[in-house]
Amino acid sequence: MSNLCVICARGGSQGIKNKALVKIKGKPLISYTIKQAIKSRIFSEVIVSTDSIKIQKVAKFYGAKSWFLRPKNISGDKAQVYFAVVHALKKIKDSQKYKFIAL
After folding, report:
1. 20 to 30 A Cα–Cα from 30, which one of 8, 40, 45, 73?
2. Strand spans (E) along 1-103
3. pTM of this prediction?
4. Quick one: what percent of the chain has pLDDT higher than 90?
């Protein structure tokens, strides 16, 4: 069994729109999270759950997997991260192979 990292990144952040794409030292904020998750070597997969095509493209560029977009009904300001993770697990063909899931 292996470990899964799910990074949740909404495009419609309430305080700062597209916060995940804001550049810090020339790189998008989300890139640091993705790189650290991959570098840790404790995850067999790092996926990004997002409602934004822009964030999805950046996530893939930095090595995360992201082949689906999160629906609007679980992407709003009041959306619970639990539903984003459940949605991501439903999109994975063999989610039973994971022993641990980290956010």
Report:
1. 73
2. 2-9, 23-24, 27-28, 45-50, 98-102
3. 0.91
4. 75
